[in-house]
Amino acid sequence: MDPSNLRSQSSSYVGLLHSQQGFVDVESRPEGVKAAKAKRNTGKGKSVAEIATVWEMKKDDLVRKERLSRLAILDTLLAKTQPLSEAEEVVKNKLLAELF
């Protein structure tokens, strides 16, 4: 008789006994890195509504930044103590008409 064959038979016999008696000797192991990544990436994309909401917020932000930029230019023109050139006067009048 081969001792390794005897060992494999006894381990399968013990496993059979445990399964018949409902004895579970399985340790719960954490899932692997690849399995975790695969689970994470399935069907979790952003919906169209979320993207549209983000786009609306970015558009509003852009409008506000543009208004602040124009106000800064107007403030610079109004703060000048020297007389304004023709182009600066036109820009100042245009910004005053748009903003106020």
Write a concise synopsis of the structure shown.
The chain has 100 residues and is mainly alpha-helical. The protein is 73% helix and 0% strand.
The SSE string, one letter per element, is HHHH
Inertia-based shape: rod-shaped
Average residue pLDDT: 81
* Overall helicity: over 70%
Measured distance between first and last alpha carbons: 103 Å
**From the alpha-carbon coordinates, what is the Rg to the nearest angstrom?**
37 Å
Number of helices: 4
Count of DSSP E strands? 0
- The structural class is mainly alpha
Taking the sheet with the most strands, its summary is: none
Strand content: under 5%
Stretches with pLDDT under 50, minimum 5 residues: none
Tell me what you see in this structure:
The protein is mainly alpha-helical and 100 residues long. It is 73% helix and 0% strand. The chain contains four helices and no strands. Helix 3 packs across helix 4. It is rod-shaped and about 105 Å long. The model has no long low-confidence stretch (mean pLDDT 81).
